[in-house]
Structure formats: C-alpha cells, structure tokens
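Retro notes
What went well: the complex prediction finally ran end to end.
Inputs used:
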Amino acid sequence: MNPILALTWLLLLPLVASPVIYLAGRISFRLGATAAPARWLAVLALAVTGVPLWFLGEAVLAGGPVSLSVGAISLRMDGVGLVVAVTVMALTFLVSIFSIPYMRGEEGEEKYYALLVSMAATMVGLGCAHDLFNLWVWFEAMTVTSFLLVAFYREQRGALEAGVKYLVQSAVGSALVLIGIAFVFAQTGTLDLQQVAATAAQPTPPQLLAAGALFLIGFGVKTALVPLHTWLPDAHSQAPSGISAMLSGVVIEAGLVAMLRSLGCLAPAAATWGALLLGFGALNMIVGNLMALRQTQVKRLFAYSSVSHMGYMLIGFGVAVGYGIVNGAAGGFFHLLNHALMKGLAFMAAGALLYSLHVARGSHAPLTVDDLNGAGNRYPMTAFALSVAVLALGGLPPLSGFMSKWQIFVAGFETRSTGVELLVIFAAVNSVLSLAYYAPLVNRMYRHEPSAAVAAGRPVSFLMGAPLAVLTLLVVVLGFWPGLVDFITHPAAVHLVSIFSSGAALAQF
Amino acid sequence: MFDLLIVAAMLGCAFQAVRGTRLLIAALWLAGASALTAIMMFRLGAPEVAVIELSVGAGLVTVLFVFAINIAGEEPPVTLRSLVPAPLAWIVALCAVGLGAAMALPNLRVESSLLQADKFATVLWEHRSLDVLLQVVLIIGGVLAVLGLLAEGRANARKESQ
Amino acid sequence: MPDISTLAILSIALPWAGAVLIWLVRDRQPQLQHALAVVFTLAGAAAALAMIPQRSEVNVLDFPLGSAFGQVTFLPDGLAVFLAVVATTIGCLAVVFSVDYMKGEKQLGRYYAYVLFFIGSMVGLVLSSNLLLIFVFWEITALCSYALISFYNDDPKAVTAGIEALIITQVGGIGLLAGALFLYAYQGNYDVPTFLAGADRLPPNVLALMAFGFLVAAAAKSAQFPFQTWLPDAMEAPTPVSALIHAATMVNAGVYLLARFYPAFEAVPNWKLAVVSVGAITALMAAVMALVSNDLKRVLAYSTVSQLGYMVYAIGAGGIFASQFHLLSHAVFKALLFLSAGAVIHAVHTRDMREMGGLGKQMPLVKVVMIIGGLALAGIPVLNGFWSKELVLEAGHEGGPLWAWLFMLVGAGLTALYTLRFLTMVFYGEPRSGQHVHDAGPAMKVALVPLALGTLTTWLLAGSFGHFLGKALPEGHDVESTGALLLQVATAPTTFVALAVVALGLAAWWQRARLAGLAHSLRGIGTMASNSFGFEAINRAVVSVTEASAESLRTTHNGVLNWNVMAILVGLVVVLAILALGGA
Amino acid sequence: MMSLSLPLMAAVAVLGLLGIGLLGLLVTRNLIKVVVGLQVLVKGALLALLLAGRLSGQVQTGQTLALTVIVADTIVSVVALALAVQVRRQFGTLDLQALSTLRR
C-alpha cells in the first residue's frame, strides 16, 4: 500500500466509522434491539485501522517520515507519530473489547463507541500534525470527543463534577496555547513547525520564550504537570474504567507529545525547556507519590500514580531535550508505551473487579482498597493481572516498568551532570516510595478472608479477561526483553533529539 | 481614538459580564462584549470573521446561554464570597497578564507592509482545508456530547415519574 | 553433559519453570505441588552442582537485550558457582523441609512459587556478569523475600514487616543502581569483568561513589548496620523456611557483592575502613541484641546478622577467602540451626523461648543436631565454625584496625554466651509449656542429618575450596592446601586469644548467677538492645514524617474549581517569571 | 512613545480580555458564569490571532484560524452549558462550592 494512502486511511477510517457506529447503534436501538452493532462495529473499525497502520509503520521505519500535505498544512508521520499511533491504536482496540461487557446495556452505549473511535483517530492525527495550529485543532478535537466519555455516568454527581473540572481546565489550557500560537505566528509569520524552527532567531526573543511557556502550561494541563494536574484524579476515577485506561494510558501522553512538538519549533532555547521539563518531572513524581500514598479508592490511587509516572517521562524527555541524549528520549518513549500498557492493565483490571463487585450489581460505589481483600482466591487471573500491573508500575523487575525507568535513569547518568544524577537518585527514591502504596495493594488481594464485596461478586466475563491477559503478557515479555521495542522507540528518539539538537548543543557550553 | 473607545467599552462589558450577580444580565453583557469584539475584528481587517463573531458569538451563544439559564433556573442572586480571596485572584491574574505583556509588548513586531494576496475563501478552503474538515469532527463530538448529557434517560424518567 | 552456559541457564530457569508450573497447578492438588517443588529444586541444584567441574573464568553466553540494557552474560567462576550451589542446595533443603512443615497450609502454590522464583533469581544474581542483570536479580530476590515475609497476609505484622524489608532493601538497592548507571555512563556497557580488569580507567570520584554505593546496597541486603532492622522483623515469614532463605541465602548477596567487586574498590581511599567498620559494629551490636531476645527465631536472625558482620569485616580486611569460607560454614550450620529451630517451633507452636524448656527428652535427634550447630556458631573446635571464624579473625588482625579486631573478639565471646543461653532455654530445665509436643516429621529429619554431618566436616575442604575459588580471589592470594591452612590457624596466636575469649563467654554463662550484679548494671544496654538501639524508632519517624507530609499535601487538593484554575495560573506565572529573569 | 496605533490598541484589548477572563474564572462561584469567563478568555485569544495575522501580514490566515477557534469554542461552551444543566438537575445548584465533593 502506498504510504501516503495508508496515512490517509489511518486517519480517515476511524473518523468516518465514528458516525456510522453511532447511527448503527442508534437505529438498532430504535428498532427495539440493543445497541450491539455499535460495539462490534467499533471493534471492527479499530481492527481494520490496524492494516493501514501496519503498512505505514513499515514505510516509516524503512524510509523515514511520510508526509501528506493538505493545502498549506502538512501531516508528517515520523517516528514520534508512529509511537503515538501504535500505542493509541493498540490500547484503544483492547479497551473497545474490554468495554463490550463493561458498557453493555448502558444508556448511550452507541455514543460511547463512536466517541472512543474518533478520539483514537484524533490522537493519531495529533501525533503527526506538523502545523502549529493544526496541532491545536487535533488537540481540541481530542478534548471535545473525551468530554462525554469522562462524564458518561451523567446521573452520578461525581462524574458530572469531574466532567466540569475536566472541561473548564482543558479549556483554559487550550486558550493559553492559542495565545502562544498567536505569539509565534506574529513573530515568524508561519505556522509550519519546520519553518518556524528555521525562522526562529537565536537567541530566542522574549516573545517566543513566552510562547514556549504558554505551550508548556497550556498543553501541560492535559499532560497533568503538577500543579496543573488537579482535574486528573477526578476524571480518571469517575470515568468508566475503559476510559480511565484511555485517559491515563494515552490522552495525557498525547498532551505530552503535543507539548514536545510545539516546543520543538522553539528549539534554540532547548536547554531552558529541558531544565523546565526536569523540574516539572521532579515535582510530578513527588506530589503524585505522596498523594497516592493515602488514597483509599483504587482508581484514584492509580490516577495519582499516573501523575508520578508522567514525572518519569518528563525526566526522560527533559534529558533528551536539554542535553541531546538519545537514550533519554528512547526511554521516555519506551515509558510512554509501557505506561499505556501498565496503566491500561491496572485500570482495566481494577475496572473488571469494579464491574464484578459493584456495577454488575447496580451499585456505583467506588472500588476501595478494602474491597480488594481476598480477591485472589475468587478472581485469580484478574488479581494476578492487577498484581503484575501494580508491581510493574512500582518498577520491580523483571517487569517492563523497570526497564523503561532504567533507560531513563541511564540517560540521566549519561549527561554526567551532578544535578541530573541527583535527580535520577531522587527518581529512584520515589520509585521505592511508590512501593509503599503498591505493595499493600497486592497483599490485600491474597488475603484469606474475602471482603463482603468479593464474597458477593459476579464472575469476570471472558471479553473482559482477554485484554487483561494480552496486556499482562506484554508487560512481562517487555520486562524480560526490553530490546523488543527498540525498533520503534529508537527512531522516534533520534528524530526528537535531532529536532532539539540546535539548542541542546548550547547546553554543552 | 475610536479604537480606544471600542476597547474601553469592550473591556467594560467583559468586566460587567464576569462581575454581575444575575446570570441573564451577565449573558447580555457578554453579548455586548462580543459585539464590540466583532467591531474590533472589523477594524483589524477581518470582516468575514467579524460577521461570524457577531452572529455566533453575540447571537447564537447568547441564545444558548439564555436557554441554559432558563432550563437550569436562575440561582437566587445571593452575593456569595469568592472561594479564592479576591485580592489574591487579582494579583495572580495581573501577574500572568503583566508578565506576558512585559515579554511580548516591547517586542511587538512592526506591522508588516506585505499584504497577503490570497482571498479569505482561498486560504480557508485551500490552504487550511484540514482545519475546516476537522471542524466536522469537533461538531460531531460536541453534538454527541450534548445529546449524551441532556438525553432524558430511563433512570431520569423513572425518577420524575415517582 | 550440557555445556556451561546451558547449565547456567538451566539452574535459573528450572526453578522458575517450577514456580510457574506450581502456580498453574492451583491449590487443589497440594501433593502435586509438593512433588513439583522438590523435583524442580533438586533439578536446579543438580544443574548448579554440574557447573562445578566446568567453571569458567571468562564470560559465557552473549544475548543482546537492547541498546541501554547490554548483553545477557554469565561469569560462572569459582565464586559464582560456589554461591549458586549454596543457594540451590539450601533452597532445596528448605523445600524438602516444607513438605512436612507447610502441610495443610492454604495458598501453597503462592508459597512455592515465591520460593522457587527466589532460588532461581539468587542463582542468576551470582552468575550474571552484566551489572544491570545483577541489579535486576537483586531486585527480584527482594521482591520474593517481601512476598514471603508477608505470606500470612491477614496478619498486619507480617505485611508491615514485608513492606519494611522491601523498602529498606530497595533504598539500599539505589546504591547498586547508581553504581550500574555510573558504569554505563563511563564504560559504555555493564560488563563486570571489563570493569574489574580496569577500574582505574574511571574517574576516581566516580569510582569512590560506586564503591560506597555498593557498600550501602550490600549493607541493606545483608542486614548490616545501619539497615539491620528488617531481618529480625522478617521472621514473620512461614517458619523456618523463609527464615532459612533470608538468613542463609539472600543475605549472602551483599557479601557476594563486596567480595566480587573487592578488586575494583580496594584502592578507593577509606573504603576498606568503612567496610571493616560496618562489619565490626554490626557483629557486636547484633550479638548484644541476640543476647536479650526471647524469641527463638529472632535470636537466630540476630546471630545471622552478627555472623554476616564477620564476613563483611573479613572482606574489609582483605580476607576474601576467609569471608567466603565463613560463608560456607555459616550457610551449613545456620541452615541446621534454623531447621532444627523450625522443628522445635513446629512442635511447641510458639517462638517464645520462655515457654520452651526440657524439650531434649521429647526431641532427641533435634537436640543433638541443634547442639552441634550451636557449638559451631560459638566457634568451638573442631567444628567448621571454629576454623572459618579463626581465619576471619586472623585476616582482620593482619588487615584491619585494632579496635575493630577487639570488637570482633568481644563479639566472639558474646556469641558463645548467647548460644549457650538459647540452647539451655530450649532443651534443658523444666518443661514450661503444658502442650503436647510431637517430634519432627521424617522430611524434616531428612533435611537435618546431612547438615549436621556437614557442620562436622566442611572444614576439611578448606584447601580445595581455596583452589576452587581460584581467580575469583584477588591477586596475591596464594591458595594453600587444607593441611597448611589448618596448621596455620592452629598455630596462630590470634586463635588462642579468640579461644580464650570464647571460653570466657562460656564461663560467663555458667557463672551467670554470680555475675548478676554486672548484668544488672548492664541492663541499660539490654534495654537499648531490645529496642534495636533506636533504629526502629528512626524507621518509624521516617514513615510518620512521610505520612504527615502526604496528609498535609492532601489538604491542598480541596477540589474547588477556582483553586484548580488558580494553580494553573500560578504555574504559568512561575514559568513566565523564570523565563523573564533567566532569558533576558 | 508609541502612538495609539491600532495594533497597540488590539494588544491592550487582548491583554484586558485575558485578564478579565482569568479573573472571572478565579472569583466566580457560578458554573454558568465560569462559562462566561471562558468565553471572554477565548475572545482575547481570537483577537490575538487576528492581530498576529495582521502583524505578520497574513490577515486572511489569521481569519481562518479565528474562524476555527470560534467553532471550537462555541462547541466547548455548548457542552459546558449542557453540563451545567445536568449539574443543576443532579446537584440542585450551580455553586462551585457544592461541586467540590471530589477532593484530596
């Protein structure tokens, strides 16, 4: 398949499928049946989208970026975009399967699938947008498609509250990004990322520095930089579990990629951006961990753990941006991918338990850590999957979370700068601290006395279990053989570092 | 001088919209600010967008606000104390704007004498057609969200029948 | 006969495969689980033993893991194979012992899976020559040990102890982590032999950081000062099997690490002194704590900490051979002691020695073997503990400072004292528990007898053991024959001094009534010792400070939208201010 | 001294709208008024884009950007208003104080 055609299909297929899914579900529902066609169409659409992604991936890995120009706007699928696309499509596919039993019979099921599929497409588009404003439009489209998904249980007060916070804070963030775009546009007269980078003067004028700050903060809201993260625990804990997995696994990472892309056009000040990313990384880790330490709701705990994991990615990318170290970006992308797997697994496993213990019995009570007591006996596979996820998140080998953290740490030491080395040690201490809330979670599940909720729980259906099994396997395999994903993270890392290289070279002085 | 008046009036309207205690009045102030923004847009040489802002920003959005306020019901206009101490809010907002201004204003680029040759329609439909296409995605997403949020649910219907 | 790299992989993979199988069998078939566990650990031990004749001084196997992760390489030299054999055989004994001990327990699959996973990782830890892999296996052993300690999940004490062990060893592990990262940053790979061959190519300050980082890691893993608190608490694990794993296997990892990297760090200023100090302080302090504890397993745990102090001390003084030889002796006699203690505890259903007594009559075999083990621990000739401890003291006399040597002597006396104390409390005197006591089961006895024989005889292997370690020992360490070594020990003046101190210790026990006054005046130390010299308090303080800061941070998340927007703006203002000040 | 040129006036308008919008988001307690604040904020951004287009001599591009932003912003506002209606139904109030059950 022609790579450009593949890129077109990759973006078009889910976007076209989305209204079809909605209509099919709606019509079937109106005819008195269930919205079942929507479920299967969504899974099918996502599976078929894998085909153009496959061809495109082959082309990008073999021959470098694939460009698609629509008027003055260019979409370039490069290594970075490919990592995003692969992660998003893989996780969305698994989430769509997981959602079939989870969302069955929910009111508005067809809207759920339509929005899920189009959200995936917007994130893929965001990954390959090479025009500053177009990047914002994809970003905004991603946000708009996720509003309903967050507030899906619109009769639950918590879900509504989370939806409000998510919407307002996202809107503030995107308004700030717009101002930043205006600054860049006024200064350079162009919006194409490469042309902006080429026109940007050295040293960077204050106007562009301010633009960078606005990008950092504006996209940072979605990326959950501390202290902009306050929407995240609410949204992650209140959304349906599949959406929690999406939000934590890919949406916040999409924000990060958008931030890196937009900062990429201000590369001459890369040393500054690198330092800021490192600073936010440290803040994210410690605040995320401390907040997670005392949580009693499982999904909220995982939400704060996402905040701290974002910190690790920021450190990886900060080292890559500020010091031009390829391993940093490679580690960052590896952790991005890994986090999607681990957190996807964690949220889905917790979701499977939540569904079996509460939702299936008509209760919308949150899944508390006490509910997990003794789950290992009744739900051995789910409990095992959740244990693997949690231990991988805690960075224990031989699970994948350790390996990606390690690569980030290696990059930190490669700078041979004492400050960054201390930061890495700080990150390692944080990793240990995180065990203080992950480990008790695992212990609970293997208690002998089941909690009341577990004793009365329903079985976990096959379709919920299957994505868990796949993700568990991936987390373990990547832990034993981290080199397996090198082929995709390495080109992305090289590309990212080359974008920032003009400024990172300054850091040598 | 005309511009100065417009800007002053616009900011005044905006301030009233944010400050007022009654929702309907605030929506009307916002409409005023929107209309004045449209004039400012026209002055900046953007007649097409000005018209759209006038119809959408001042018209459609105001209507939607009125609808929403009607459905949601006006809150009794009790003046509640702000949750964030007002002086702190002022300081932070001023700091943010002031710092932005300090970094951007002195370096405000001299107005380019070059004028874009292309027409608005050309730029919109040819150069930036992708943005326009994506608006469709935005609209679909928004419509689905509103439908999902406002649909009279089964549970809701049950509740109301009780 | 498979080649060495296959054997290395087998000795790791067999226990791991067994772990997975046992997990898959599920708990409905406990007999099958017992059988699988025994078969797979035996196979692992066989693979480890088969490596003995084929050991190699160079890396074997080379499997790329990915850019930042290096290659999978193994270095099965004498040191590594020795420790692999120790790990697998002791692990095997633990499993055999469990067949009786864990009969009827729930969640047997989980238990055996951890034990077997642990054994395989321990082998991997000593065989790997890629520092990253060493770290990985290091962490896996920590993970398994945590899981085993908190095996009785319903008991909050066990959970707390498990998490404490996990966190303390992980904090220490950061030292190893930093070392591995430095190695990659400055050498470009993780290869240990390359590093050992030319450590001086690294900048001196980096090398020093690595050296002290490794010391911290080793101290945490081997429960040395100031990280000793986790090991006694780890005795919450299923008695005595995981105690055995902790006390006789995993803690060796720290000693191994120091011994392995001794050639690289030898020249780092003050490093040897630091190692000696850690060892000496630990040996003495833990001996005092063993003296005042009334919990049989805790006494043995403290004694383990103390004996590990001897090994660390020996390394710091340059006596690598002495430390490894003591490790061998200790592994044997401590395994014996723990297993017999397990049999005792299994019989009387308590760990409190004040409720034991007079058990000698009911459990004659256990009594005999435990006394053999105890005497070896006390360093009574001609048991294996005597020879190795004397070698340690001799090495320390030559290579370490005098104060540390005196510490160790006092420690030796205290060791004799507390050994007699616990043996008496358990086996002699009037029976203090009214419970029916049942003797150890057959599988337990099968595990005990070979260990008792080993305690009596392993010292005869001294010469061939030295030869076996071969190039793993640092340069200039001439390997002598058994006879020469024994003669050297038997004629050295330190031996007689040490024996005199040990005799003093024994005498103190017989004369304990007369020394009551002295003991009374020393009560302060006793109280301090039973409070772990305040280290528990430090742990608690760290925990409470962390929790308090987490709690106060939580109050800032008040969930009000206005404040959330405020946070965004403050973030913006701060970043803008940084840029305006720094960028202008 | 800079004259009261049109670009300067536009810049002042942008800054003023931004400041007022942000201030509104900080002090208002009513959810619908929060949406008003967002509207003001985005109007500032709109003017900023048009001004940028003018300054760089690409007025038409600036216009297209502004058009897309208007569409996006209107959609966000509509969804926000729908949320507000739903909040009123479920919570019985639009006060943000009541909407702070998820905390810590």
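What we learned: The radius of gyration of chain D is 17 Å.
What to try next: split runs per interface for comparison.
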